[in-house]
Specification:
Radius of gyration: 35 Å
Strand order of the largest sheet: 1-2-3-4
Oligomer: single chain
Helix content: 25-40%
Shape: elongated
Order of helices and strands: EEEEHHHHHHHHHEEE
Largest sheet: 4 strands, antiparallel
Structural class: alpha+beta
Number of helices: 9
Length: 247
Amino acid sequence: MWYNNYAMYARTKTFTNKDGSQRTYLYIVEGVRENGKIRQKIVANLGRIEDVQDGALDKLICSLARFSKKKWVQAEAAKIMVESAREWGTDLVFRALWERLGLHQTLEGLLAKTEISAPLAEAVYAMVLNRISDPLSKRAVNEWTSEIYRPSFDALELHHFYWALDFLTAHKEIIEVELFEQLKNLFNLELDLVFWDTTSTYFEGNGPEGLAEYGHSKDHRPDRVQILDQRRNPGGPSGISREHRRH
């Protein structure tokens, strides 16, 4: 606090009574120059400190804070209570890409041919969005959606995610074709030449039942079960397809 170019501040002064008890007073003092020296001049006696601490001091501070550009803002900000905070940017960016790729239209079109009324398209989108930003298990995704600002996520329940996976498996080929057609149009893909690459990867232990087998190993580990990974790429920014097969 400044007044007449000199600092003003609070200080206390304690007095001892005849019976040995003490009383403490709170003052606002000002530094003044007298005879070349800085001395304290009492500007205001705010009273005994235990009296003003009952609430009068807080009211005075709040009242003075209104005239301070910095302290007033801080005081008002302290009154703001944040009841909830959700992430919005992830959905804002990737939903636009999701729509551009036609995935929403593809999924809703397939669902329209069934009697399914559950929000499976939204469950698929939630799982993809989670995989992009913070990969979690399906059970954890069910809790993660509460951290994202997207009102339609509020209707999702745990069983929707497992149901959505079954739906994707049943319509995998159709979805891949629709997605590729969108990519081909967006990126002007030419299919005059398609690259096809294969590689293998092995598992420690038994590996996935019914998928991994023993065979020729590029990793020089014929003692481990493995799968064959195939990828087709037209030379553009995205592959046509990728599959895992038994070797």
